[in-house]
Amino acid sequence: MMRVSESKTTQEHGGPGRPADHAAFAQVARGYYAPIVALFTATLIISNICATKGVEFLGDRSVSLGPLQVLPIATDGAFFLFPLAYILGDVLSEVYGFRATRRAIYYGFAALLLTVVCFAIAIRLPAASFYDNQEAFRTVLGTTPRLVIAGLAGYFVGQLLNSATLVLIKERTKEKYLWARLIGSTIVGEFADTLIFCSIAAGAIGIDTWQQFLNYVIIGFLWKTLCEVIVLPITYRVIALLKKHEPSYAPTEVDPLRT
């Protein structure tokens, strides 16, 4: 005789009065949100690893404008990745709204924190007798707590401000002036990110004068904003395609910071 719980399960998953033909699984939500969030999170993790390398362009030249050193250009190995994270944040904010983007930011924050913890554990594990790269491994993946805090704080505040600024501008402009939303939000988010990171991490990354501090903040901010402007046509195209293929894209009747 069939047990009550077994009969109930059969009815729920196989339909009333007929047995279930296959195993039960939950449905995965369709759409492009999940892959964009995955790319967004991967970009953040990869950029934080690449950022441990110092990079200098035009090192044989010296050009200054007052306290601002224009050349040589000193930055980190993730200079081409951080702008991508903000571009993806813009795409998420424009198409899916602040609430969905905030959730992606939380995912990215958790992933970065998990990465740091895993690296710390791996560094402290005893190296095998045949492994000769322990110090190199520690140098590349090891970060000071100060840098970790600076990176997480800058990312978290910058991305939230970037998203909030974009959706607030969109509330006023609706579907017009996309360029203003993209550039305006990047200016706010990137400046906050760069300023917070450098303010916390200055000593740990070798910045010990106001001139170096201003140079790092201003050059970094200008570079990231310039990247947004350069790839604006691509961002436009991606956003247009997503709006076209997301069936739920439509005006809302609630506060844009709650959607």
TrEMBL record:
By its UniProt entry, which InterPro entries does this protein fall under?
YhhQ
Q: Which residues cross the membrane?
A: 32-51, 71-92, 104-127, 147-169, 181-207, 213-236
Q: Which UniProt keywords apply?
A: Cell membrane, Membrane, Transmembrane, Transmembrane helix, Transport
The terms under GO molecular function for this entry are: transmembrane transporter activity
Q: How does it sit in the membrane?
A: Multi-pass membrane protein
Enumerate the Pfam families for this protein: Vut_1 (PF02592)
Q: Where in the cell is it found?
A: Cell membrane
One Gene Ontology cellular component annotation?
A: plasma membrane
For this protein, the record's NCBIfam families field holds: queuosine precursor transporter
Q: What does this protein do?
A: Involved in the import of queuosine (Q) precursors, required for Q precursor salvage.
HAMAP family in UniProt: Q_prec_transport (MF_02088)
The entry's family comment says: Belongs to the vitamin uptake transporter (VUT/ECF) (TC 2.A.88) family. Q precursor transporter subfamily.
Q: What protein does this entry describe?
A: Probable queuosine precursor transporter
Lineage of origin: Bacteria, Bacillati, Actinomycetota, Actinomycetes, Mycobacteriales
